[in-house]
Amino acid sequence: MPAPKDWNLPTTTRMATVSERAAQGKAARKDHPRSALGQWTPHSDRPDVVSMVLSQEVNRVPELLPIRHARMAVSPFAFYRGGASVMAYDLGTYSNSGIVSQLCGDAHLSNFGVFGSPDRSMIFDVNDFDETHPGSFEWDVARMVASFFIAAQENKFTQDDSQSITRIAAQTYRESMAQYATMNDLDQWYSRVDAQYLLTLAGTEGGVKATKNMTRTLDKARSRDRWSAISKLTEVVDGRRQFMNQPPLLARLPMTGDVWKMVITQFEQYRQSMLDDRRELLRRYHVIDFAHKVVGVGSVGLRAFVVLLQGRDEDDLLVLQVKEAVASALSPYTGGPLFTDEGHRVVAGQRMMQAASDVFLGYITGVGGRHFYIRQLRDMKWSPIISNLTPKGMTGYAQLCGKSLARGHARSGDSVKIAGYIGSSDTFDTSMVDFSQRYATQVHQDFAEFTQAIADGHVATTMSEVSAVDSSLQVETQKAGEAYTQLEAMKVKG
Question: Could you tell me which residues belong to the region Disordered (predicted)?
Answer without folding.
Answer: 20-43
